[in-house]
Design brief:
It contains 8 helices and 12 strands. It has 256 residues and is α/β, with parallel strands linked by helices. It has a domain of 175 residues: P-loop containing nucleotide triphosphate hydrolases (Rossmann fold). A hairpin with a 2-residue loop joins strand 4 and strand 5. The radius of gyration is 19 Å and the shape is globular. The structure holds adenosine-5'-diphosphate and magnesium ion. Adenosine-5'-diphosphate (ADP) binds next to helix 1.
Amino acid sequence: MSKQLEIKNLSVNVEGTQIIRNLSLTVPRGEVHALMGPNGTGKSTLAKVLAGHPDYEVTSGEVFLDGESILDMQVDERARAGLFMAFQYPSEIPGVSIANFLRAARQARLEEGEEIDAVSFYKTLYEKMDLLQIDRKFTSRAVNEGFSGGEKKRNEILQMAMLEPSYAIMDETDSGLDIDALRIVSEGVNRLRGPNLGVLLITHYQRILDYIVPDHVHVMWNGTIVKSGGKELARELEEKGYDWIKEAFAEPAGKA
Ligand code: ADP
Ligand code: MG
């Protein structure tokens, strides 16, 4: 069985409109793949479909996690299967502290009857918080409530570090970050990189790829992947912008 996240000929409708068109993409464990593309092209839609968001209707295609089909799984089953999602706009969860949230999330991974060891939980939590330069006073703060953009994104990476997924989808983790926060977040991700983690890093801008150097780059336009290549493809996009992609892959005249 191949250890990979495999998206095969996926098409998705949102409220009756096709947003994802016959998209195929494979991310092997151990690799970081960047997914780039102009706004409105369907990147976040893809991320939400993978996460199991109920508003999106898969009209055809398949998604496999280490060979196992996930499209019929509930959100929590996908998480337990090893999938993690860092959202473009992380939700606030008033009344639930970061520590309790992460503890519950880790507890949910254990077999029935098993209990998390509190001492080792906090030890791990503090290690990861130090790594991401998150102040310990955040442990007792409600998840994302009143956080700055940068704090929310760091908290997403903290969740990822604590949940130890096999595959992480990161949707514009770089948006809204100043250069210092970007460096901290990137360093956090780089420390998590390794043979057991596959990453799909969704980004509009090349900038984060200076810090998290991808193994492969895919360009998405109009709901599908139109070009794939090495890390130099990201630079090319940065220099030339997305207009040449739009021109090269524009629908034939009269079809619009
Ligand atoms: P990207 O992340 O690449 O900027 P999105 O996936 O957010 O693109 O959006 C792709 C297209 O799908 C846009 O035209 C957007 O308006 C539409 N879309 C996404 N989610 C919804 C939704 N829940 N309802 C209606 N349209 C949506
Ligand atoms: Mg988006």
